[in-house]
C-alpha cells in the first residue's frame, strides 16, 4: 500500500506532537513542514532528519504532491489555511477550534464537500480510551440516570494574547460533554474574569443545561496553582471520576448514591437513604489519544470515510463557545440554543421545555 504523503503546517507548541505521531504511524510519511519562524523549522529538521522539505510559506506544500496536511497554527489562521489547502486538493486535519466563528466553520464544510475532501478537527479527547470507557458506562446504563457532570481544566498558563481562556480550553470539555451525552446543550451561561491581561479573560465558569435536565459545569483557568484535568460524572446508580493528570489510575468508579424516601412522622426514620459501596479502578488499555486520532484521519483519507470529529462536529463546538462568549459579554446572561446553535428569545420557552423533557 502506498504511503500517504503528509505535510505539517505549524511547528510550535502542538505541531511537533502531531508530526511525531504521523512519522511513527506505518503507512504515512511526513514530507514537509511549514512555519513562519525558522527556529521551530530547524528544530523539526534536526529532530526528524527524514523530513525532506521545510518552508516558511505553507503554499510551497502545494507543489509537493501531498495527500493531506495537518494544521496546528493559531486559531485565527485556521479558516484561511484550511480552505486554501482543500481548494488545492488536500485532505485536512485542523486543530481545535476549527475556526473562531461558526460561519467560517460552515464555509469550510462547504469547501470540503465541494472538493470531496476529508475535513477533520482535532478534538483529541474523543479519542481518549478513558473518555470512551466512561461513554460506554453511560450508554450501558451502568451509572443510571445522569444527574450532572463537572469538568475542571486549569493550570498556571499558557497565557494567550489573542484569545481568552474560553476559546482556548473550553472546546476540549465541550467536545467531551457532547460526546458523553450524545447531545447538544440547550442553554449556556458563562462568567469570566480578566485577572492578568485587561480584556482577556483568564478564568471562566460555564454552565450548560442538556436535555433531560442534565446539568454540566466547566471551570477553565490559566491562573491556578496546580494542573487539573478532571471530570466527575454523577449518576443515579454510580459516580465516576476521570483524572487525566493521574499517571495510572485515571478512572475511578464509586458505587455510591442517595435516594429520597417518603417522609414520615415516625421517630428515627430518615428522609434519605444513602448507599456506600466499593471504589473500582477498572483496567483501561491506554493508547495515546493523539495517535488514535491521527490513525483515524489516515483511515478516513484512505477509505473516504467521514471522521468522528468532522467539520460538523467542529462547527457545533464553535457555536457553543460563541454562545458562552455572548453570555460572558452580557454579564453571564443565559443564552438559549436552538437546533442551529443560534440563541433568540423566541426559542427560550421551547428549549426550557426540552431541557425538562
Automatic annotation (TrEMBL):
Gene3D superfamilies: Dihydrodipicolinate Reductase, domain 2, NAD(P)-binding Rossmann-like Domain. One of its GO terms (molecular function) is nucleotide binding. Residues 4-123 form the Gfo/Idh/MocA-like oxidoreductase N-terminal domain. This is Oxidoreductase domain protein. It comes from the Bacteria. Residues 131-240 form the GFO/IDH/MocA-like oxidoreductase domain.
Amino acid at each position: 500500500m502506498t504511503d500517504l504523503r503528509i505535510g505539517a503546517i505549524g511547528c510550535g507548541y502542538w505541531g511537533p506532537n502531531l508530526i511525531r505521531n504521523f512519522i511513527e504511524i506505518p503507512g504515512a510519511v511526513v514530507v514537509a513542514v511549514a512555519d513562519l519562524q525558522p527556529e521551530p523549522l530547524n528544530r523539526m529538521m534536526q529532530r526528524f532528519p527524514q523530513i525532506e522539505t521545510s518552508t516558511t510559506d505553507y503554499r510551497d506544500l502545494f507543489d509537493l504532491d501531498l495527500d493531506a496536511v495537518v494544521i496546528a497554527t493559531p486559531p485565527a489562521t485556521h479558516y484561511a489555511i484550511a480552505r486554501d489547502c482543500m481548494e488545492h486538493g488536500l485532505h485536512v486535519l485542523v486543530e481545535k477550534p476549527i475556526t473562531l466563528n461558526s460561519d467560517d466553520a460552515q464555509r469550510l464544510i462547504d469547501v470540503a464537500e465541494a472538493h470531496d475532501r476529508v475535513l477533520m478537527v482535532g478534538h483529541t479527547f474523543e479519542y481518549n480510551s478513558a473518555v470512551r470507557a466512561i461513554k460506554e458506562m453511560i450508554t450501558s446504563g451502568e451509572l443510571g440516570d445522569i444527574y450532572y457532570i463537572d469538568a475542571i481544566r486549569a493550570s498556571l498558563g499558557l497565557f494567550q494574547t489573542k484569545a481568552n481562556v474560553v476559546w482556548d480550553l473550553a472546546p476540549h470539555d465541550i467536545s467531551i460533554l457532547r460526546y458523553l451525552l450524545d447531545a447538544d446543550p440547550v442553554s449556556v451561561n458563562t462568567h469570566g474574569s480578566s485577572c492578568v491581561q485587561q480584556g482577556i479573560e483568564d478564568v471562566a465558569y460555564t454552565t450548560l443545561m442538556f436535555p433531560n435536565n442534565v446539568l454540566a459545569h466547566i471551570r477553565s483557568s490559566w491562573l491556578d496553582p496546580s494542573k487539573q484535568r478532571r471530570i466527575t460524572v454523577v449518576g443515579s446508580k454510580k459516580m465516576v471520576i476521570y483524572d487525566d493528570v493521574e499517571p495510572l489510575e485515571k478512572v475511578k468508579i464509586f458505587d455510591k448514591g442517595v435516594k429520597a424516601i417518603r417522609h414520615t412522622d415516625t421517630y428515627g426514620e430518615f428522609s434519605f437513604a444513602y448507599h456506600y459501596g466499593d471504589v473500582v479502578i477498572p483496567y483501561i488499555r491506554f493508547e495515546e489519544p493523539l495517535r488514535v486520532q491521527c490513525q483515524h484521519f489516515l483511515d478516513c483519507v484512505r477509505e473516504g470515510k467521514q471522521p468522528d470529529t468532522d467539520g460538523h462536529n467542529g462547527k457545533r463546538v464553535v457555536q457553543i463557545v460563541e454562545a458562552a462568549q455572548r453570555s460572558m459579554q452580557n454579564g453571564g446572561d443565559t443564552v438559549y440554543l436552538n437546533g442551529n446553535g443560534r440563541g433568540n428569545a423566541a426559542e427560550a420557552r421551547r428549549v426550557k421545555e426540552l431541557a425538562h423533557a
